[in-house]
Amino acid sequence: EAGVTQFPSHSVIEKGQTVTLRCDPISGHDNLYWYRRVMGKEIKFLLHFVKESKQDESGMPNNRFLAERTGGTYSTLKVQPAELEDSGVYFCASSQASGRLYNEQFFGPGTRLTVL
Amino acid sequence: QKEVEQNSGPLSVPEGAIASLNCTYSDRGSQSFFWYRQYSGKSPELIMFIYSNGDKEDGRFTAQLNKASQYVSLLIRDSQPSDSATYLCAVRPPYNQGGKLIFGQGTELSVKP
User: Which residues from chain A sit within 8 angstroms of residue B42, using beta carbons?
Assistant: First the structure.
């Protein structure tokens, strides 16, 4: 069974440009999460989809970030326009069920975003 | 105060020793607790979870939870060089805050041959 995949693995862009990150969750996983790790900081939650609906977007830093999950399959995270402080590693995770105490989230390899 | 705190390390132990990794959390209503291992440049990988007070053992790994002290730990017995990685403590907040995980900064473990 394929794990969580993310594309691209690395992205280097100029400040002010737009970047779109993609995440393909494990097949059959309704829950999809985006997290971000900024240099020297802990991994921080961005948002949570259940199927195509945004369950929790309390971690989204500002309106330059837009996440979508059309059809409840893959998800995209767009940053427009990118700022220097957006640099970091963006992780996607998926899980089968979020309502249980044990809710294993499987993480993808991450996309390393560098904004120059 | 950070929601989840870990010593960043590095923690260095000799091969065969017990490595002890600690984590404290601030929200007393937190539901469940996870330990992830992350090798450099790789994705976090779940190695243990615990939600009841006490100890939970899985092979060389033991997770310990003390909700009264808001403390969770991970013991690695017979440490191997392949255990060298960053260990992330993650906490699931109270139920009404959804399924997100709150991470500590991670503890870097180095096991010396």
Answer: 109
